[in-house]
Amino acid sequence: MRIGNTEVRFLGGPLGCLGMILFSVLASVVLTILLNVLL
C-alpha cells in the first residue's frame, strides 16, 4: 500500500493484512458475545 512516496507494509505483506482483518472480525464477534452474556 502506498501513501505518497512511502511504502506502507503490513505484517508479512498481504497475508498479514488479511490476518489483521480476520482478527478484527473475530474480536468484534467475541466482544458482542461477551456483552450479551454480561448484560
Description:
The chain crosses the membrane at residues 12-38. This is DUF2905 domain-containing protein. It comes from Paractinoplanes deccanensis. With 39 residues, the protein is mainly α. 64% of the residues lie in helices and 10% in strands. It contains one helix and two strands. The protein has one helix spanning 14-38, and strands spanning 2-3, 6-7. It has a two-stranded antiparallel sheet. The protein is elongated. The model has no long low-confidence stretch (mean pLDDT 80).
**Average pLDDT figure:** 80
Give the distance, in angstroms, between the N- and C-terminal Cα atoms.
41 Å
User: Reading side by side through the largest sheet, how are the strands ordered?
Assistant: 1-2
**Poorly predicted residue ranges:** none
Quick structural summary:
By secondary structure, the chain is mainly alpha-helical.
Task: Please give the structural blueprint.
Blueprint: E1 2-3, E2 6-7, H1 14-38
Antiparallel strand pairs: 1-2
Question: How would you describe this structure in keywords?
Answer:
39 residues; mainly alpha; two-stranded antiparallel sheet; 2 strands; elongated; membrane; transmembrane helix; transmembrane; DUF2905 domain-containing protein
